[in-house]
Amino acid sequence: MILYRVSLAFLLCSVTYFSNAQESASKPTLNVSGEVTKPLALTVEDLIKMKSVNVNMKDKAGKEHRYRGVDLEEILMMAGVTMDKQLRGENLSKYLIVKCTDGYKILFSLAELDSSFTNHSITLAYESDGKPITDGTGPFRLVVPGEKKAARSARQVVSMIVKSAKE
Fold it and tell me: Is 92 helix (H, G, I), strand (E, B) or coil?
């Protein structure tokens, strides 16, 4: 009888452990890698815990949406990307490639993302109009306001890779 209870308790603990492991493994993640000192794998929950920003941007039809997310510069600094005073000389040849689930890729120089170089701010959004971004466009969306074309405001962002342009 004691062996049965121990086995049953072990079975219940195992089911709970594997259930939680599968749940966390199935959560969408944004990976930040490449020339970083601390590679990241961020979930929506991780981003919600960070300092949030709100930004408005119109869609292709001209309808304005309010996005909530995290300033991309903050994410890059968390990953240990060369920014601010270190972004000079050779480091000015570094860039960020943003990849989306559908194969879409966007490129930014690090200087475009650094507030010591520009007044523009780029947001990695996880909410649109007060709701989580879903319906095949999320859970992460890059919001790049102020550009004439919205081509770099990408949806379904899954990874960001920092590289250096070397000849």
Answer: helix
